[in-house]
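User: My instructor asked us to take a sequence, write out its structure as tokens, and then describe one feature of it. I'm not sure where to start. Here is the sequence I was given:
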Amino acid sequence: MAAADPELAIQLARRVAFLYQVAEKDLQQQVARRLARGVEQPGWAEDKLVELTRLRQAADRRVAALEKEVTRTVADALAQAAGGLRDQPFPIRTNTRAVEVLAEQTLTKLRATHFQLLRSVQDEYRTVVARTASQVATGQTTTRVAAQRTVSALARQGLTGFVDSKGRAWKLDRYAEMAVRTASAQAMVGARLNEYVDAGRSLVIVSNSPDECDKCEPWEDKILAIDGAPLSPEDRRLAVATVKEATKAGLFHPNCTHDLRPYIHGLTKSFTSTTDKAGEAQRKTETRAQRKLVEAQRQDVVTEPFGDSPERQRVKAKLAGAEDEAVEAMAARYRLQHGTEPRPADLARFRRQAGRGQVAVPPE
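Assistant: Let's start with the prediction itself. The structure tokens for your sequence are:
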């Protein structure tokens, strides 16, 4: 009987998030390059505001390219998730239309953030011009220094891509990762339930996860009935709810890491001892390293157009430290998986991945 790869949904989501990280870095670099042109010329602030339309046009083109990349990657990711079961000796039955609908729903959510992304680019550009002009007016700094410091600070914060109904501001890459991770998990569950029904199973058991929350923790190790599957009197006695009922009550919420396995009377063991605490701790380490690295890379590309300065040197030192931390995070995963130290060739590969901003993202 096939099992879902618990790492697959995470890795697929990270691929999509990486597209947003690269796009955000590109957009902020566009802002910095335009602001750096003529930075020591009189009338700089006025000239920059006149150029705002050209910035918007360039940003439009980059976001259009992003949308094409995301559309293709999300569709491929969910198709892979729907068929991504381990130990599977034969093709599983996949509801292709259901996967397509899930992909379109996910893309609709992501596309809705793109307008805010474009707006954030223009807002950042205006903010740099206004703050720089204000600081220069005091006579205590130059336009170049003030603009470089301001773009560096804004790059550290990143662009806001989405504000939800509760007023929470999401970073684009984190929102994309959450949306795709959730959709990938849904695709896996749907494909798995199809397989279980084809094998004559009517019951499933919910896994134990080290990342449980108040919504899904009550369902751990609970036996559920597969909706539409024939149930015996014993099945009805054992099942505490159907899969749909559990999902409606909070199981498989966004970013949920729980899994379902077929339940067989007298044979299936509890999931309690299956948590991967070391693996989960490693994923968190990689995520932290990824975010630090991406932040440092954003600051690097926006300070470079303004030339050397104390701020530029500070950012370069920060980037070097972030790359070292990224390499160590990847080396730690190697040790966890292989039980030995990485070879020099592996460390060189990790260094190249860090240079591309890929820590928690598997390279293509």
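For the description part of your assignment, you could build on this observation: The first strand starts at residue 3 and ends at 4. Try explaining in your own words what that tells you about the chain.
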